[in-house]
Amino acid sequence: MTLTTENKTKDKTGTPDNQGQGEKRRELMPWLKLRNIPVLKLIAAPETSEIMAANEAGLSVGEWAPFEDRGTVLGRDKKLSPARLAVPGAPTTTRQAEILNTAKIAAPTGIDGVTLGRDVLSQTVVAKDPFTDYNAVPRRASSPNVCFVGDVGAGKSSACKCGYVLRPVILRNRRAVVFDKKNEQGEGEYAQISRFFGNDPIRYALDGSGVRMNLLDPEISGTNDDGLNNQLAFLNTVPALLREGHGADEWERKALRLAYREVMRTFEGARTPTTADLHARLGVISRGEHSLFDMSDEALERLHEAGVSMRWVFDELLDHYGAIFDGETSNGVQLNGKVTTFDVSQLPETGPVIPMVMGLSNLWLLGRVRRDKGMRTNVIIEEAGHILGGPMATQQRSNIKLSRGLGISNIYCFHKETDVPAGSPGMAVIEEAQTVNIFRLERPKAAEWAVSTFGLNAGSAEDIMRLANGHYMLKGSGSVPEFEVEHVRSDWEIQMTNTDSAMAETATVVG
């Protein structure tokens, strides 16, 4: 169809074209013809010069060249906006142009696994689960361990409760065990969840109102991943915890082994020995011990003195923390159904008791799972710096492979990079995790640490510093880049997971 001045097309005012306008239309005819081809009209933009010429001619061509103009259309009206931007416009923005790259906006995960939230970019469901990833073909993760890191109040607790406790335990052969550190009105923050599933928390307290845990409990007598006796390895850690990092030397360790072997022989077939029984035998040296054959009197005396030094260490343990460690393990310490919580929220924040209770309870758990196989277990360790930031980290790392063989996924939750020293066994545990959830870290140093430690894209630190509450960067294994997830909860989950009831009458935000 050819446009001429005889065509009775109307201009934008609704009046017939006059002769001058017709001449101008003929000059613009090549482009105007293209605009009337249905397909090209949609996908072929005209040249900027053609649009400008048509606009100057007073013709209505349905196009505007913002990238050649300055300011905005609104800015031309002085009554509406007296200021005009002094920068040229742009044909599009980076966010709008992302639609042109479908790889960037595709769903970042599949639909198998546990639903965690919503991908901010693609608005698709994010589903992930350490056991699902580990058992996928091909395997998507060689380690089932998970890390949560972020500032207080950024949303770690509620996301962890939903994604690793409430949602997975409704599945067959799944359960959760929680080391609950945060105090919430006199008990741990997981107490409500534990009772919902029919179990009271396993509560530790120094006033005698809680449970006891025996260092010589037979449940923890197995070997760790290094082939060492778990009980003896834990006993060797006690001096380092009580002496602020100063562990036992080779003489003290020998005296401890002698006392341990003697007490186990003495009570074999009878009752279970306790920490007090071990304490009574430290420093007692028998010349009939085969490993001491031909030792000089000086060597035996030195060994006796080392044993006495260890006796003072365990004497301090029983004096200060006997309410927890003096006696046999309480009957209330059980692996209960779907959700089991070890409540350490009422123990002193400083000192050795929290890492000692966490470490010993973790060993007890491994022993029980050995006899109770067939369940996949998420073990959530809140305030994981207590167990990864000190002497207990070596034991924790030694049991990583053992945990994997027993169907255990360890979920470590901590606040900042200083919770776990660089180069320590605890940092090695963190670096081995192949699912990482990074919540807001407002300090630049902390954000940069997360980028380098977990292999995030350069420049992600600024994004981490600006994350909203309940949003986090999810990084899995391999070369797949991290992406932002929005944690989404049901009304019931909000009631079960909020942890700010002491600060707000109606808690509706991400806790």
In short:
The chain has about 500 residues and is an alpha/beta fold.
Explain what you see.
There is one protein chain. By secondary structure, the chain is of the alpha/beta class. Among the domains are: 1-91, no CATH class; 215-329. 38% of the residues lie in helices and 11% in strands. It is built from 21 helices and 11 strands. It has helices spanning 19-27, 29-35, 38-43, 48-56, 94-97, 102-105, 130-135, 156-166, 191-196, 230-242, 250-266, 275-281, 297-325, 353-371, 385-388, 392-398, 400-405, 425-432, 444-453, 460-465, 491-497, and strands at 114-119, 125-128, 146-149, 174-180, 202-203, 339-343, 376-381, 408-414, 435-438, 471-475, 483-487. It has an 11-stranded mixed sheet with strand order 2-1-11-10-9-3-8-7-4-6-5. The longest helix has 29 residues, at 297-325. Residues 1-17, 28-45, 63-87 and 501-511 have low confidence and may be disordered.
**What's the rounded overall pLDDT mean?**
82
Strand runs, count: 11
Low-confidence stretches: 1-17, 28-45, 63-87, 501-511
* Percent of sequence in beta strands: 5-15%
Strand order of the largest sheet: 2-1-11-10-9-3-8-7-4-6-5
Descriptive terms for the model:
single chain, alpha/beta, eleven-stranded mixed beta sheet, 21 helices, elongated, disordered N terminus, disordered C terminus
Helix and strand arrangement:
Layout: H1 19-27, H2 29-35, H3 38-43, H4 48-56, H5 94-97, H6 102-105, E1 114-119, E2 125-128, H7 130-135, E3 146-149, H8 156-166, E4 174-180, H9 191-196, E5 202-203, H10 230-242, H11 250-266, H12 275-281, H13 297-325, E6 339-343, H14 353-371, E7 376-381, H15 385-388, H16 392-398, H17 400-405, E8 408-414, H18 425-432, E9 435-438, H19 444-453, H20 460-465, E10 471-475, E11 483-487, H21 491-497
